[in-house]
Amino acid sequence: MNGAQAVIETLQREGIKYVFGLPGTTIMHLIDALYDKDEIRYISVRHEQIAAFMADGFARSTGTIGVCMASRGPGAANLTIGIHNAYAESVPILAIIGQVSDEIYYRDAFEEMDLVKFFEPITKWSIEIHQTPRIPELLQRGIKTALSGRPRPVAISIPLDVQISEIKEFSFRPVNRLNHRVIDVNGIKQAVEILKDAKDPVIIAGGGVAISNGTNELVQLAEQLAIPVITTWRKPNVFPNDHSLYFGNVGPGCAPVSWELMKEADVILAVGMHFSEFSTNRWTAISKKTKLIHIDMDENELGKIYIPEIGLLGDAKETMKVIIDQLDGYTEKIDNRANFNKYLPNYLEETKLSEVTSDCPVSSISALESINRLINEKDVIVVEDAATFGPWLTRYGKFKPGNFYAAAGGSMGWGFPASMGIKLANPERIVLNVTGDGAFWMVAQDLETAVRENIPVVNIVLNNFCFGNTRDRQKTAHDGRYIGIHYNNIDFAEFARLLGAYGERVESAEQLDGAINRAIASGKPAIIDVIQDQWEGLPPGAIPATAR
User: Which residue in 26, 15, 24 sits closest to 51, CA to CA?
Assistant: First the structure.
């Protein structure tokens, strides 16, 4: 067995089902080792960032690790957009990268670069393996590192000669990975007393709830203490949106009254969130008078932005379980939450879709109505990758845990490849990628991958012929001096048909429901090219974020 075969054997024994990558000189032996491995499906893409995004989507949807692969130099560099996004959003990815042979390193070999240093800022662990017998050990350690504590990507580069060298004896030992545990029981007791005494508490729930699979505990805790729940930017899926205690998803374009409820809270219980710019209205939404209880699995987040009254290091689900136990049956009534009851009518009004004023071109309201109907009628996972439409979707969409994913790391083009990874993890569910035309252009070539590999994701391309997010900012920051934001588009539906996918263009709202259903029924990857007004902006009352 050579080193490349040892890599693939280790991945198989770790239960890896998919590897996403693009062939290159320094990973040819790794790909060859996959040839006879029926247990692992290798999917070749048209750009390495697609491989990283697909691994990201698969990892988010399964709670396991996603694996991508690239060759040295430019191939490795192309991975970094996806690796950076996964790092920002706590997604476990194993990036395996080919490297020039040790014997020619430091001689300006073709595409030579220091991959360890290159990936260090955007990974939890970045290493290079120089001893072939250690491949199983270090790969297992990399997977364990990526999944433990706060999950994040790991990059492992393997020189070509290490892949070719033989291993006399393959050594593999299963690794027992412990669940995260609560450490500070005394801190939890103090937190419980603060929550009992609170008059107008608020829970802010972030991605850590989803990572820990803690939605049920979050619902139980919120109901028991009658605390309204706000979710962080692009994470509406951590709490049922139709729950009476749900008070919105904050971020650009959110219901303004959600910020008011946060500002006036006397106690905030922050669960699995890290007080990012968009989840705190640029760090203005939490009063200095508010008592903060912060639960997070990453000790570096506790006290980093806001100093908590109580900081609890641990898994969100397990920590909330202990809090519920410590409450010992104590309950509170929603009638006693003055601010919640005061602001609830405003919230219901601000999250109610207004009447459609135009159905041709298709308005964002009409698109939302179609998406919400689909969610109600079918088992759908919605993926969002549209900077302009995103605030509409997270403000007015009606999501449940496990049926919505979005990139909060800022990477345009994430949605379509992530959707393919999510579809591979959920073959029986409908996966609907809602994307802008600008984002889709960045990854459109991999519609061929979806067709070739038979990954039937439905893409709703909201086609407004411009970079709408930048347009809105140019309007406010530069008095409408628009430059570099408008462009021409092809007929995306015809593009889909040329590649063997399903394609349909929609120019009026009444056509959209039928087009979505026909795309789903086709059983193929699909594009629904939805023509929109190039000047339609954010939801009512929303102000574009300033240039930062």
Answer: 24
Closest CA to 93 of 65, 62, 122: 65
Sheet arrangement for strand 404-406: 404-406, 380-385, 430-436, 458-463, 526-531, 502-506
Is residue 546 predicted with pLDDT exceeding 70?
no
In tens, the pLDDT along 118-147 reads 999 999 999 999 999 999 999 999 999 999
Instruction: Classify domain 3-164 at the CATH superfamily level.
Output: Thiamin diphosphate (ThDP)-binding fold, Pyr/PP domains (3.40.50.970)
Place of tokens 């029924």: 521
Do 53 and 435 meet the contact criterion of CB atoms below 8 Å apart? no
Mean pLDDT of the chain: 93
As given in the structure block, the two tokens for residue 128 are: 């290079």
Alpha-carbon distances, residue 71 vs 26, 63, 74, 98 (angstroms): 5, 26, 8, 5
- 428-445: pLDDT as tens digits: 999 999 999 999 999 999
Residue 374 to residue 393: CA distance in whole angstroms: 13
Do 3-164 and 353-531 agree at the fold level?
Answer: yes
Q: What is the DSSP string of 204-265?
A: EE-HHHHHTT-HHHHHHHHHHHT--EEEPTT-GGGS-TTSTTEEEE-STT--HHHHHHHHT-
Q: β-strand 66-70 against 18-21: which pairing, if any?
A: parallel
- Superfamily grouping for domain 188-350: TPP-binding domain (3.40.50.1220)
Those residues with Cβ within 8 angstroms of residue 407's Cβ, 6 or more apart along the chain or in another chain: 85, 89, 234, 384, 385, 414, 415, 418
Q: CATH for 353-531?
A: 3.40.50.970
Q: How many CB atoms lie within 10 A of CB 155?
A: 29
Q: What is the pLDDT of residues 157-175, one digit of tens each?
A: 999 999 999 998 888 887 7
Beta strands at 229-231 and 125-128: parallel, antiparallel or unpaired: unpaired
Cα dist. 401→5, 173, 210, 250 in Å? 39, 35, 8, 17
- Tens digit of pLDDT for each residue in 499-542? 999 999 999 999 999 999 999 999 999 999 999 988 888 887 77
User: Within a 13 Å sphere around the CA of 324, how many CA atoms are in the beta-carbon half?
Assistant: 17
Radius of gyration of the chain (CA): 24
Q: Which of 132, 103, 104, 105 is nearest to 116 (CA)?
A: 105
Residue 74 preceded by cis peptide, ω within 30: no
The domain spans of the chain are: 3-164, 188-350, 353-531
Distance in angstroms (rounded) separating the CA atoms of residues 252 and 274 = 17
Least confident of 96-110, 351-365, 367-381, 455-469: 351-365
How far apart are the C-alpha atoms of 74 and 193, rounded to whole Å? 55
For 473-500, the pLDDT digits (tens) are 888 888 889 898 889 999 999 999 999 9
